[in-house]
Write a structure and sequence with these properties.
The complex is a heterotrimer of chains A (330), B (380) and C (265). Chain A is of the alpha/beta class. Chain A is 28% helix and 26% strand. In chain C, helix 2 crosses helix 5 and helix 3 crosses helix 4. In chain C, a hairpin with a 3-residue loop joins strand 9 and strand 10. With 265 residues, chain C is of the alpha/beta class. Strand 10 of chain A pairs antiparallel with strand 14 of chain C, so a sheet runs across the interface.
Chain lengths: 330, 380, 265
């Protein structure tokens, strides 16, 4: 494949309510990269009965959109999606491909990368171009930041989580091309989805929460965890967690904030009984105020917050909750 | 060069013992501390994890491993719970005489259940007359047709109330000329046997210690263990090798726990703007604990290696037992001192370590008795 | 009789791995002596294989790409119940990214024979890309399902399972042979057992280098990696903490005041 002449692509995922936020955010980023490269933004999106998808994707920043509208692609099917998209990429020769780090994206991206014999970076927290126009893919690792590039193989592929980039303005005056993709009739699926079961989502979507209270191993037990939950409810905050709290089954994995979890960007973040390990802290893209409660004065969390309280959270939280309730009654 | 390395298998045994301890023992420690009772979940887990089978030959359902592997297991368990390590070590102690001196019939009858953990074991030697002087024991037996009848009381017996199979040491009542001793395999259901008083120890809570009463306890002739009159040799060999070796395991584990807790606290506790670990007086104590741990491990594993070669190791174990049990008492006190005021608070594990260390001291022979044995070895 | 392959990685013991940091002067890793362990999710993968072996019969082969000292990790897998291990170890394999790692493992698996099922952990504790399992499936031409959290049925033809999706799961049926990547919800891995360690002494670990595989040296290791790391920088800390002082009541009061002043409450 030719270096750096192709377009910046996004594989846009469709959910029940339309295009996923992460895909729109990535189109915004793709737009920025394409402008820098003097190139175009192209999007592929597979689905069924999604009439306005093409138009919406163009309004979000795409110049060309490739879509399917077929029962065969109504639901994600690894083999068919890989086949359709890889054929498209072999024809169209993208320079860069961005994919949301959704459950689907994290399976589809490596299938495409291996099929196209190219490189893929996971969970980038930043993307930029070097002076030769090569994509610098940045990911957090070992307490610092690593920069990864795919110097020769094309396309350069990266997955990015929701919340890392901001969505661009929707511009309904934008125009572009919508191109349908043909589906082969003789496709035989070796993987069949029999059912999709959705379990209840947390009340406050973490990515858009303005306040977040997150807890970790320092909660010590379910009683401690319940206090953290009570504080979150009292403040009207989203409840977040770190890996140890999920492993202890105090909370579900969908509250986990971090490198392999959710990304957040609140005004207030309170971390309770957690040590500020990088895998968690990179999940906090930014926050106006950060506060930590931890019983270890030496904990690394205290180097990453504005205000710190050294205390046993099981003893401090009841006092804090009492004071907050009294304040709210005034 | 002398090979001081463990084999790859032994490293894996150590890892297996760590995983067992983490999964089954650690979650029960708080409960054991609170009630001081033997935890049935832990007992069951010991059997299922094959800890009870370590020193039983394969043909009786055991693992046929040696005393090095036994010490590895006890050390790892002792890091988390000395009570559990003690319960296991005394279990091995009750098993050893049957393995070494039992008839084929006795081995077939008792060892498989002991290997699986279905039965627990202990050795009953100590009496009010003094564990340090087993020859002064008053518990006695006389022959009655095809049986022996045992009378007397044993005290400070670990696993007293959980043991199904007990190796009991007693004096021949009928021999008026000289003292003659024998050992017997007693089943807890034998008529006339009763586990009576339970001791409330200040440490090793979760390990049961108590009194046994033999009131015309009838023992079938085939339960004589070894030859009549050879009881002292049998009992002492068990205590000398297995008992002392077990205390080394308990001590090494607890020494490591004291050292780790001290390092952790010293790194977290800030005084004068820096962790107290940076102060020389604290480093002094850490260094002493470290030296004692290194030395104790060398002594203990060397004694186990001697035993695994089939040689007599009672002397080497006397040295290791004396050294490590004294060292662990020092280590526990130093750990408490490093913790300052917190060292008096129950929620800090070091307070348990201190109490456990007191109980380790006199178990399987006091330090004073060890020194008598060691002096004898020095001049021999 | 199932022929099952399990891909495992020897990683720095995750309990101690946070000690590895970036040297600010050289931009490379300061690796203190951290022992290797089986990647935690790979233990779930091995457990899944052991469950099928115990209910349906089978033979389990471990595959791992790593340095020579990774063989202790493979021995642990044998002690846990795998039947044999193949360690792909060669200086040519070093510096591999996920792509060339997957290609190397796939070559090893291909050389060893045909497998009915291949299990991988979803990701490794030290790489965490999630790419290796799916990429192996492409190189072997097998269907793949990632994030498997439950296996409900296994026949010689297919496998029925649950795989995690956002806020829920999908129930999926896959034709065998197939590759599955597993989550920690799938099972609780057994502990190492003493008797397993004894039995493992009789089992074999084979080491294969580049010469044993049907693949060019240019396609493995650093040479075969499409991606490279160009820079590693330690994180700059940007917030200076102000500790809130006082006894518990005072601290609570001060915190509430600060939240009020900031307009949060």
């Amino acid at each position: 494949m030719d270096n750096n002449k192709g377009s910046v692509w996004v594989i846009a995922e469709q959910g029940k309510l339309g295009i996923l936020d992460v895909s729109l955010q990535l189109i915004g980023k793709a737009r920025q990269l394409a402008d820098e490269l003097d190139s175009s933004v192209e999007v592929v999106s597979l689905g069924y009965e999604c009439n306005l998808i093409g138009t919406q994707l163009i309004a979000a920043g795409a110049d060309k959109v490739y879509i399917t509208d077929d029962p065969a692609t109504a639901v994600y099917q690894a083999e068919l999606y890989t086949k359709l998209i890889s054929h498209l990429f072999i024809q169209q020769q993208p320079n860069i491909v961005l994919i949301g780090s959704t459950f689907m994206g994290r399976e589809l991206a490596p299938l495409l990368a291996a099929t196209l014999k190219t490189g893929l970076t996971a969970h980038c927290t930043d993307l930029c171009l070097d002076d030769k126009g090569i994509l610098e893919q940045k990911i957090p690792a070992y307490g610092g930041m690593m920069t990864i590039v795919c110097p020769e193989k094309r396309p350069q592929m990266a997955t990015v989580a929701k919340g890392v980039f901001r969505q661009q303005e929707i511009d309904n005056t934008r125009s572009g091309d919508i191109i349908p993709i043909e589906i082969p009739v003789d496709f035989k699926a070796r993987i069949r989805t029999l059912d999709i079961v959705n379990e209840e989502t947390p009340a406050i979507a973490l990515e858009s929460a303005e306040k977040i209270v997150a807890g970790g191993a320092g909660a010590q037990n379910i009683e401690g965890w319940n206090m953290i939950e009570e504080l979150a409810t009292l403040l009207g905050a989203g409840l977040g967690s770190t890996r140890p709290a999920v492993d202890e089954a105090w909370t579900k994995i969908n509250t986990m904030i971090g490198q392999s979890g959710r990304m957040v960007n609140p005004k207030l973040y309170i971390g309770i009984g957690l040590s500020g390990e990088q895998q968690h802290m990179v999940g906090i893209v930014d926050s106006d105020i950060m506060i930590a409660i931890n019983n270890d004065e030496q904990s690394p969390i205290f180097k990453q917050v504005d205000y710190g309280i050294v205390d046993d959270c099981q003893l401090f939280l009841p006092e804090l909750i009492k004071k907050l309730k009294a304040h709210q009654e005034k | 060069m002398i090979d001081f390395n463990f084999t790859e298998e032994q490293d894996m045994f150590r890892k297996a013992a760590q995983e067992f301890t983490e999964t089954f023992v650690v979650p029960e420690i708080a409960e054991m501390e609170k009630t001081a009772e033997v935890n049935t979940k832990v007992v069951k887990a010991l059997g299922e994890a094959e800890m009870t089978a370590i020193t039983i030959p394969e043909q009786y359902g055991g693992l046929g491993l040696g005393f090095t592997e036994r010490l590895i297991a006890l050390e790892e368990i002792g890091k988390a719970s000395v009570a559990t390590a003690m319960m296991l070590q005394v279990n091995h102690l009750g098993i050893a005489p049957i393995v070494n001196f039992g008839t084929e019939a006795q081995k077939q009858k008792y060892l498989p259940k002991l290997a699986s953990g279905e039965s627990m074991a202990t050795v009953a030697v100590t009496e009010a007359t003094g564990g340090s002087n087993p020859g002064g024991c008053k518990t006695s037996y006389h022959k009655d047709g095809n049986n022996y009848v045992l009378n007397g009381r044993k005290c400070f017996i670990t696993n007293s109330h959980i043991a199904d199979t007990l190796v009991v040491f007693a004096k021949d009542a009928d021999n008026k000329e000289k003292k003659s001793f024998s050992t017997f395999i007693v089943e807890k259901d034998f008529p006339g046997f009763k586990a009576t008083h339970v001791e409330h120890k200040i440490g090793m809570r979760g390990c049961n210690t108590g009194e046994l009463s033999f009131d015309n306890c009838v023992i079938p002739a085939e339960n004589l263990l070894g030859q009549e009159g050879k009881g002292m040799k049998i009992a002492m060999s068990a205590i000398g090798d297995v008992g002392r070796g077990g205390m080394v395991g308990c001590s090494l584990g607890l020494q490591t726990a004291c050292l780790d807790a001290s390092i952790k606290f010293a790194n977290e506790r800030i005084l004068y703007g820096k962790p107290i670990f940076e102060m020389q007086t604290i480093q002094n104590k850490i260094a002493e604990m470290k030296v004692d741990l290194e030395a104790g491990r060398l002594l203990g594993y060397r004694a186990a290696a001697v035993q695994d070669e089939g040689k007599m190791s009672a002397n080497e174990f006397a040295v290791a037992k004396y050294f490590t049990t004294e060292a662990v008492q020092k280590a526990a006190k130093m750990a408490v001192d490093i913790h300052g005021g917190y060292g008096c608070m129950e929620e800090y594990a070091v307070t348990r370590y201190l109490r456990d260390s007191f109980v380790i001291g006199p178990s399987a022979g006091t330090s004073d008795i060890m020194k008598v044995i060691i002096a004898r070895w020095a001049v021999s | 009789m199932f022929k099952i392959a399990v891909c495992i990685k020897a990683v720095p013991d995750p309990e101690l791995a946070s000690k590895i940091k970036i040297d600010p002067k050289t931009g490379s890793l300061i690796r203190t002596n951290i022992p290797l362990a089986i990647n935690p999710l790979d233990r779930n993968a091995l457990e899944a294989a052991l469950n099928i072996k115990s209910t349906q019969g089978g033979e389990i082969t471990i595959f791992s790409m790593g340095p020579p000292q990774a063989d202790t990790t493979l021995k642990q897998c044998l002690a846990l119940g795998a039947d044999q291990g193949i360690l792909l170890s060669d200086i040519a394999f070093a510096g591999a990214d996920a792509y060339s790692t997957a290609l190397t493992l796939a070559s090893g698996i291909k050389k060893a024979g045909d497998f009915d099922l291949i299990f991988c952990g979803v990701s490794s504790s030290d790489g965490a890309t999630e790419w290796v399992g799916p990429e192996i499936s492409v190189f072997l031409g097998l269907p793949v399902v990632t994030l498997v959290s439950e296996i409900s049925e296994v026949t010689s033809e297919l496998i029925q399972l649950k795989a995690n999706i956002e806020n829920g799961y999908r129930k999926v049926e896959v034709d065998l042979p197939a590759l599955l990547t597993v989550t920690m919800e799938l099972n609780t891995p057994k502990n190492l057992s003493f008797s397993g360690i004894i039995k493992a002494k009789k089992k074999e670990i084979t080491v294969w280098g580049i010469k044993d595989l049907d693949i060019s040296e240019n396609l493995v290791g650093l040479k075969g990696s499409p991606t490279i790391v160009t820079e590693m920088k330690p994180m700059e800390k940007k917030r200076a903490v102000e500790f809130i002082e006082g006894d518990r009541v005072e601290k609570a009061n001060t915190l509430v005041s600060k939240l009020f002043e900031a307009g949060i409450i």
